[in-house]
Design brief:
single chain; mainly alpha; Serine Threonine Protein Phosphatase 5, Tetratricopeptide repeat; three-stranded antiparallel β-sheet; TPR_rpt; TPR repeat; TPR-like_helical_dom_sf; O-mannosyl-transferase_TMTC; Tetratricopeptide repeat-containing protein
Amino acid sequence: MKKQVLVAGVLLMTAISFGQKKELKKAEKALTSGETTEAMTLLDTAEPMMSGADVKLQTQFYTLRGEAFEKSAGGDLGKLKKSADAYLKALELDPGSTRITDGIQNLRVSLVNSAIQDQNAKKYAVASEKLYTSYMVSKKDTSDLYYAAGNALNGKDYDTAIKYYEILNDLGYTGIKKEYVATDKVTGEVVPFENEKARDLMLRSGNYIKPEEKITESDRSDILRNMTLIYIEKGDEEKAKSLMKTARAENPKDASLVRAEADMVYKMGDMANYSRLMKEVIALDPTNPELYFNLGVSSAELGETEDAIKYYKKALELDPGYTKAQNNIAATILKDEAALVDEMNNLGTSRADNARYDELKDQMHALYNRALPYLEAVQKNDTSKVEVIRTLMNIYSQLGQDDKFKAMKAQLKTIEGN
């Protein structure tokens, strides 16, 4: 009897094995024919039988499952993650399979392309998760984790962002890589290619010239800057300071790190240190108008009005069309207007008060004439700024420039549709 039971068991196992092979063969055929839904159904049927299957069949099952979920996913995160799980199980069973590694690469392409679409649609959370999934299936390319962190940060998911940045920091990630580029003959644009072979192929087409190899800039300072700002956002200023101290010690002349420290102390409300650090940044990058603009902002907040105007003017010198600098110069000049108006309104009707009123009025007109060229430049660059138009109307009215007042009034009427 025992022998008969044993034989029956062997026969049953053989039948199950045959059934497994049959279902997987049918699933593979359906997948090859593009019948993804049918393939998924067949794989679902085969799944309960996999626990007792041999390694070869299990590998085949998980490989097919990975392919099926990837092909049917579109941008569906759930299916893409199931594909990733299946491929990882298959890879664990057969680490040397080129079919599996090729499948994982196809999955990564799908994940990254889908994440880019989500990122462009400002769906940062799902973009971050797709990029993290891509990193998890192939940890050799840590750039996926870097971009996952960036999307988490954009989505204000600070817990996830700091988790990813801390992993990158522990790994010593820099993002530095060799980039193969060539120049488009028609547009003159320098175009990067995936690898040297792809670049050389395009050169042979005759559409590209000037092949070059470039080393990309390090992302480390960006990571450290974002980490410090997240720590500040989470209320952990000491951790932020400690991290920045380490980062600056590593790269004391890194302009982006000095800027990161400046951003950090600005967030902490330390405007004096912010101004000091921004001067350090400018010394490293003296032709950047944005730096002078930011130094102007911090100087204005510290009450250093003339310094603020000086820095804004330097920004304009480097970029004559810098509208924000023009606007801020006018705003900084007009800060004294309120005090003059208050004093004028509180004067009496005595001869001395009348004389003082005339003095203050002259000072007011001097302010207006000083601010006017900058406001007019702002309005010229953007004719739809209602607040600028209203300010100009008020100044023209005070200065008796009726024609200009009427022109601004008509423009405001057109904008507001009245």
